[in-house]
Amino acid sequence: MWQDLLTALALVLIMEGVMPFLCPQRWQRMVEVLAQMAPSNMRWAGFASMLMGVTLLYVVR
User: What residue segments make up the domains of the chain, in order of their start?
Assistant: First the structure.
């Protein structure tokens, strides 16, 4: 189980690093837009992201 968890963490870190590596200016603008979002909207976006992840995990597994 630990190997799967660390593999998933490594993949998340790789995916998170792709945008700043390929398009640093766009990534910076996106972060600025996110900083302007209301906390409630950001919370809903995070919730939707988690639901999509759980759904994808269910479908894949």
Answer: 2-60
Q: What is the pTM of this model?
A: 0.68
Tokens standing for residue 14: 């790789």
Q: What is the DSSP letter of 38?
A: -
Over residues 29-55, the mean pLDDT reads 93
**Residue 49 near residue 41, CB atoms below 8 Å:** no
**Secondary structure class of 61 (helix, strand, coil):** coil
Check: CB of residue 42 under 8 Å from CB of residue 35.
no
Cα 57 to Cα 11: distance, rounded to the nearest angstrom: 14
